[in-house]
Amino acid sequence: MTDMNSQYVIGIDVGGQTTKLGVVDARGTVLAQTVIRTDTYDDINPYIAELAEALNRIIKESGKEGEIRGIGVGAPNGNYYTGTIENAVNLSWGGTRIIHFAELLSKAMNGLPVALTNDANAAAVGEMTYGAARGMKNFIMITLGTGVGSGIVINGDVVYGHDGFAGELGHVTAVRNNGRSCNCGKTGCLETYASATGVARTAREWLELSDEPSVLRSLDTISSKDVYEAAKEGDKLALKIFEFTGKILGRSFADFIAFSSPEAIVLFGGLARAKEYLLAPIEDAMNSNVLPLWKNKVKVVFSQLKESDAAILGASALAWEL
Amino acid sequence: MTDMNSQYVIGIDVGGQTTKLGVVDARGTVLAQTVIRTDTYDDINPYIAELAEALNRIIKESGKEGEIRGIGVGAPNGNYYTGTIENAVNLSWGGTRIIHFAELLSKAMNGLPVALTNDANAAAVGEMTYGAARGMKNFIMITLGTGVGSGIVINGDVVYGHDGFAGELGHVTAVRNNGRSCNCGKTGCLETYASATGVARTAREWLELSDEPSVLRSLDTISSKDVYEAAKEGDKLALKIFEFTGKILGRSFADFIAFSSPEAIVLFGGLARAKEYLLAPIEDAMNSNVLPLWKNKVKVVFSQLKESDAAILGASALAWEL
Questions:
Q1: What is the residue-averaged pLDDT of chain B?
Q2: Which of A79, A118, A168, A266 best tests the B interface by mutation, with the highest count of B CBs <10 A?
């Protein structure tokens, strides 16, 4: 079915609401892409059927029928070793099941090989193949979205660990005492502070605890985007929120550096758009908390992938390794 | 000079006071060994000369002249990539210099190949080759000595990172606020609590802060060994000190697991002898702070290498990879 000289791959990003899929060439150009719903299916089988149909449609559209080398999938709780999605409570057809996603999809696509990993690992491979980490063999990808995800690359390989689930840096303990409660059941996890959700929590908490004036007070609900907009208008509380968020991130990054001594930490995701407010406090806190040998040595860089294509590119990059 | 079929290697453990060296076979038997002083030399050259002399003596003693495959060296601040020892302030001939140790030693030994890394990485390779981590491809070695060192193995390879200095887990921040000051210049480092020195510090601190009776009060100076002896006699304060130490370790181990998802964490070093008091609090704290998917899944095991041989074995194991 597959030809190792084929110069095109498929990237699929499985999200809670939608699934993005595209045909990608070796230089990272998305030749054709589309989106299907994820959340309208309670059962995996009709979802896979629609996904296969959509894939065949974009392959045809790209004019590359018979030239596809393989499929890369980024999905929450994706296990690279087994090709399964395990206990993905945020997927309507996920729940507490073990879903043999790669196997099912490969069958539906006439045997095309499928590689699967979690979304943050896929992003790391994408950045290494097409983006800010090109040429790097040791870096850590941190995705700042609804949660905080991570993909760790050591010696050019993604770290999957003993069980396939390594790289859950959103759940290291950032605040040891009285830390915020996390969806995972723990308290003080990095993602309760440094995700989009975490930034909104900080805003709500600080508004309640102080009388400091802020444009955020006039809002009924607050998202990290609201905090970003307020910061752009010079709102002091909003600026302090990003400073705090950056400090929490930088302190944790220092510990990550002690582990794998990366060349760079690459930031990606919605919250990474607040680069101008996050970078300085991250670097300050990071460099204050590393051993002298790493002070001002480790780069903090931001993703270079076009945001609309990044999810597909990240997943597709996995397929080159098939 | 070297014959790839040679079945013997040399292991050298460079410590601040003494240097241990031995001839080792493929099963981890030390055929001949000796010790020289490290701290009587201010300059590297006469030290290397004495080391070479001692090596030739034990090679002769083992009867394996001409059958040595290579030399493995474990040394503080050893860089695997460059074979150098950098800024080793605890070595009398170290200081703030960069010493081309592997090159100097290889020359002095007629071109025998030399591999060098830090002592904790050497211990990890030793444990993987001959000890508790045999057959494991993903584990973290934690050495509990004067300080806390670490050697991280992922997919069967030691993690050296971008610069050769990865695996400094003794310097992750264990206590964020009002943490103890560390030799490295930071505060709250894991090793200020969980090393032999850290245990002694805890004892002195707690004796001063409380009136709790303890056999430790009668001592002029307190070492971790004193605390261990007191615990064995059932001294309540001493037992609480180990409980606290284990908790600090276990909490940090939980963060390490989120990074590389190891099969096991292997403990080694003088303080690891207090296994009966450390294991339960380590496992409790570790399992309370990991994501549900790792709860009660990651083993905490203790080194299986004979303590008197361990340093030589660890270093020698490096030489098999030459």
A1: 94
A2: A168
